[in-house]
Design goal:
alpha+beta, 20% strand, seven-stranded antiparallel sheet, 2 domains
Length: 454
Amino acid sequence: MPKFFIFHVQRMRPHEHQSSIQARRHRSSPGSLPFPSSLHKTSRVVVNICNYFKMRYSCRCRGCGWLRVAGCVVGFVTSLLLPVAALVGQQRTGVDGRFRMNVPINSWTTVERACLVGLPNNLVVDAMPTVDARGVQNMVVTGPSSRLCQWLADRVQSHNDQRGAWQKALLKEKSKYGWWRLWTRLALWQKEFPSPRIIATVTYFDFTDGDANPLATPWFSAIFTYELPPPADSFGVFDHLEGSFASFPGAAPKEVTLLLNPSSTFNMVLPEDRPNEPPDVSDVFNFLGYSSEQKEQTRAYFHIKFNDIGSTPVTFNLKLADFWSYGGDCIIKGNFLVTWSEYRTPCSLVHEVTNSMVTAYLADKVEAVKFIARGIDFFSNIVPGIEAVVDKPHLIGPDGKPVLDWSNKWVKLGFLSDPLLKKKFSRAKNFLSHIRAQMAIGLSEGILNPEKVF
C-alpha cells in the first residue's frame, strides 16, 4: 500500500499567532516551523526536501526578498497551513482555454515522491473536493498525479534512446538521392538529432478565486504531452512515443492539477484579522506613493518567453486602487509585479493622478485600466508571468481627457504568490478606501450644508 502525504488548508487559532517578521527570518529553517501535531510523521520529508532546495536553488531579485520563489517550497507545502484558500481543483471563477506552453527539458524533479514541474517549482497535487472555501481542504502531494515527473523523465529517456535508430534512418534517407541532388543531400547532412519536446496545454487557471478573498491559493490544470519532431526531421523513428500523461496506459489524457509557483512563505500560519485593527503605516504610505526605497535599486527583472495564447481572451480590468508601490516595486493587488520599458513605474503615474480628490475617491470604485494578455508562461522562468498590452483608457477625468492614457503600451506581469504580501495589500487598501470615503462625505456635506462648516 503506497503512503500518501497530505497537507491541510485551514485557519489558525488566535493563540497560534507568530509574527510575520520572525517567520520571514526563519523561512529556511525547517526546525523552527510550527508543524501541527497531525503532521509530525512528515517532518523527515520536510527536512529532506528543504535540504534539497538549499543545495539546488538560489534566486535573487534585488530588493525583493518576497520574490525568492525557489526556497524550500515543497517541504513547506507538505505541511501547509493557510488561513484561506481557493477551492483548488474546482473550476469556478478562473479562465478556461487551451494555452500551449513549452516545458523545458529536465525542469522537473521528484523530491520525496512529490513532483515539481517547471522552473517556478509548480507543485503537482491531487486536491480533495470541498465546499467550504474557508475551511480545511486536503491535498495529496504523493498521489497518482505525482507520477507525472517519472512519466516525463521516461519519455525524454526513450526519445534519447532512439539516437542510433535515427542515425540509421538518416543514412537510409541520404542513400535515396544521387550526387545530382546536391542541395538535398547537403540539407540531410546538416541535420542534427532532434531534441525532445514536452508541451503543457493549460486548460484552466485561477489566480485569485474571483477576488473572493485576498489569500486565494493560485493553481492551474494542464495536460502534458510528448510532441513528435517534424516528420522531415524524425523519419518516423519516434512515432511510438507520441502520447499524453494518463492515469494508466490506454486511458484518456489526465488533467493534472498544480499549485502555481507556491511561495516559501506558505508554511506560515496567518492570524485572524482583529476588528478595527489598522494596517502598517508604511503600507498605507506606499499606496500614496511614498515608498521608503528607490525603485531603480529594488525593481526586480524577469523575462517572459512569449507563448501565443491565440484567440482566447484573457483580460485584467483594474482600478487605480489596485496599484501599490511596495519596496519600490509596482505591485497589482498583491498578485503581480508589473514592469514596462519606461523609467517611471505605472504605480508612480497612478499615485500622481490620485492626488486629485475626485480621482482618489473613484480609485476603488471605477475600472480605469484594462490589460489584454498576449503571452503567458508558467514553466520557463523562475517567475511565471504574463505579457500584455494596455487597452484604450476607460476612466475620463473632469476635463474630458483620460485620467491615464497608456494605450498600446506593453507591460509584463510577474506572478507573486506570497500570502503575507496579499494580506498587507488587502488591509492597506481597505483602510485607505475608508479614509477616502470619509473625506468625500465630509467634503459633500461642506458643499451642501456650508452652515455646518462655517
